Structure formats: C-alpha cells, structure tokens
Amino acid sequence: MLIKITKSCHNGCIHCCNDSKPCDEHMSLSTFLDVLSFCKKNDNNLIGHEFAGGEPFEHPLIWEFVKEYFVYFGKDKILTIATNGHYLAENQQLVCEYLDKYPNLFFQVTYDERFYPKKLDTTKRIFHHKRVCVTDRLTHITPTGRAVTNKIKPTDNVMCPPCINLKLILEQCNVFSLNDLIKLLRKFNKYCIPSIQWDGSIAFGEYDSCPKIVTIYDDDNKILKAIKDDDCNGCPETMEIFYSKIQNGDLKIKSTI
Ligand code: SF4
Ligand code: SF4
Asked: Among 25, 109, 95, which residue's Cα sits nearest to residue 66?
C-alpha cells in the first residue's frame, strides 16, 4: 500500500498522473498513527511501505513520520520514500545522517529531464548512496492527470487501470479479509494498491483522481464490498487502452495484470 502523506508538490511536471500542485493538504500526525495501526492489521506480510504524494518532502513533519514509522515497526519493515530528489540534493548532509540512523530507510528518486521542469543534478554524492535508487528515464506513463491535459503519449506498457487487480483477485479467489487480499496482491508483485490518502481515505487505484469510498476506519466487510461494487470509470483513457488490448487478444482477463 502506498501511504500518500501529502497532496502538495511544487515541481509542476507535465506528465504528473496526480496533477499535483502546491497545497496545504498534508496528513496529520494523528491520522498517520492511525494509518500505521491500519497497516499493521491489514498488510502485516508486506516487507515495508512507501511514502508517496505529491512530494513527500513537502510534508512539514516528514522526519517526524519517519521516526514514528520506525518506532512503530522497529527493524521489521523497510520504508521507502518516493521523491523527485530535490530535497535530497539540497540537504545531502542531513539526509546522510538519517540514512545512518535508520538502516531500513530507502529513497526512490524519479527524474526525467523530458518531463521534470526543474533540473536535478544526479551526479551529486547523495545519489550514489547504496540506499538511494535513481530512475532517470521514465518507463511507465499513464494517460491520467496532466499527462492527459498535456497530451503526453502513454508508454506501450500501460495495460489497465491499477484498481482492476483488486477486483480480479476478489472475483477469482476466496478472500475474507483485506489482509488476504493484500497478501495475494503481493504474490502477483502488485504493491501500490490500495493507496491511503493524506486524509485517511482509501483509493483502489494510485491516482489522486480515484474516488475515495472507504477509509482506514472502515472494517474489512465494508472495504471488500466497496471494491466489488465500485464501478469507477475515472480514467477513461486508460480504460480505452485496456479494452483495445482485450479486443486485440493482448490481455487475458482471467489473470492479474
Ligand atoms: S510527478 Fe512527482 S515530482 Fe512531478 S509534479 Fe507530480 S508529484 Fe511532483
Ligand atoms: S480512477 Fe477509477 S478506474 Fe481509474 S484507477 Fe482509479 S479507481 Fe480505478
């Protein structure tokens, strides 16, 4: 599960699937602590979690959240922070200190000069740290958010809206709890769904545009029923790709994709 701790981002990338903009919508500390107990109950088989956004480093309490995460999970889990990398570049010394302090802390930096307007110097020392992974060429662009408004061509590997895997597993397997569902998703290497939003709501896909029908305070029955009943068509361009791939025989609907 992604934990989207903020909606805010100042980077203004032309392809942003979340259409992220500067804003004040950050997860509160009390919601974050509730998210941790929700995660412990529902995804205790995962090796760790990912902070995402927006840009996680625009959250004013980011290091407080990191501290609480490791207080809560100790050495049992790893925490990855998905970032555009600018905070790391501008605070190398501080980030190194936190990397020393938390051996299970990782960073996933994504930058691609074709889409990210602010130049990132990936030759800086911090980007060579063994727990900082840098992706400098996007291999997956979905037709959502600003990629649609800016008419960015989706990559060929786009197959379907991410929420479909939740539905396919519920259709095909005996699933009685969210924990079972997440365990099965992991088996199929699907890690990003469902995603928890800054306000404690849960989306069945990864995008900010995904409807939030349930929250971390709802029980398994309500969440599983909502996944089954959800009839979202909130990313029509991705659905179009999905249907055309099915028609062309490129996808098998009876497996997770
Ligand atoms: S793609 Fe990432 S860095 Fe770029 S605007 Fe969106 S959230 Fe910000
Ligand atoms: S917008 Fe709707 S259909 Fe698209 S991924 Fe999100 S929940 Fe699924």
From this structure: 95
- The three-class DSSP label of residue 32 is helix
- Report yes or no: 41 and 28 within 8 Å, Cβ to Cβ: no
What residues contact 9, with CB distance under 8 A and at least 6 apart? 16, 18, 20, 21, 22, 53, 54, 55, 58, 84
**Which tokens belong to 35?**
């998210």
Reduce the DSSP state of residue 212 to 3 states and report it.
strand
3-state secondary structure of 135: strand
Using DSSP's 3-state secondary structure scheme, residue 132 falls into: strand
What pTM was computed for the model? 0.93
Long-range contacts, 12-15 (Cβ 8 Å, 24+): 12/117, 13/84, 13/115, 13/116, 13/117, 13/146, 14/115, 14/117, 14/146, 14/147, 14/150, 14/152, 15/115, 15/138, 15/141, 15/145, 15/146, 15/147, 15/150, 15/152
Cβ of 6 less than 6 Å from ligand 1: no
Return the axis-axis angle of helices 164-172 and 220-229, rounded to nearest 10°.
110
Whether ligand 1 lies within 6 angstroms of the CB of 54 is answered as: yes
Which residue puts its alpha carbon closest to atom 4 of ligand 2? 235
Tokens of 71: 């207080």
148-200: pLDDT as tens digits: 999 999 998 888 888 888 888 888 888 889 999 988 888 877 777 899 999 99
Mutation choice for ligand 2 from 142, 163, 228, CB with most ligand atoms inside 8 A: 163
Sheet with strand 212-215: strands edge to edge: 132-135, 105-110, 78-83, 48-52, 2-4, 195-196, 201-203, 212-215
222 is written with which tokens?
């309500």
